[in-house]
Amino acid sequence: GLYLAQKGHKVTILEMKDMLAAESYRVHYYTMMMSACANEPNFCYVLNATCTGIDDAGVNYQDKNGTIQRIDCDTVVIAAGMRARQDEAMVYSAAGDMFRLIGDCNKVGSVMSCMRSAHATASTF
To answer: Which residues contact 13 (CB under 8 A, 6 or more apart)?
Structure first.
């Protein structure tokens, strides 16, 4: 969303949680990201928002007070969560001598947790 805002698009993020990017690594990224968001005039967000409908003219959502709100827009990008895809990965379990599930195939996480699980797995060989 921030990238699109920087390219001149007006962006509104509807976040179900009480903070943006709750899964981000705080020490390195969160403060820097929030500063960039605050300094981008085309970017805004609504926390504790639940999407209740999308039509060809915009998005309806329920705010933290339970009030239905609307954002008129011409484009909607949906990022509706993540889940581990172990069943899909297991298709390849017999493809080699050793098989390990790492990253989001094992447990949904961040880029950092994926890199750590890859490093830990590689270090065992």
So the answer is: 1, 20, 43, 44, 45, 46
In residues, how long is the chain? 125
Q: What is the pLDDT of residues 11-51, one digit of tens each?
A: 999 999 998 887 776 666 778 888 999 999 999 999 999 99
Residue 59 confidence class, pLDDT cut points 50, 70, 90: very high
Q: How far apart are CA 3 and CA 124, in angstroms?
A: 38
* Cβ neighbours, 10 Å, residue 14: 19
Distance CA 93, CA 99 (A): 6
- Contact criterion met (CB below 8 Å) for 52 and 62: yes
Q: Sheet holding 58-62: strands in order across?
A: 50-55, 58-62, 68-72
Rounded mean pLDDT of the chain?
Answer: 88
Q: What are phi and psi of 82, to 5 degrees?
A: -135, 160
Q: Cα 38 from chain centroid?
A: 19
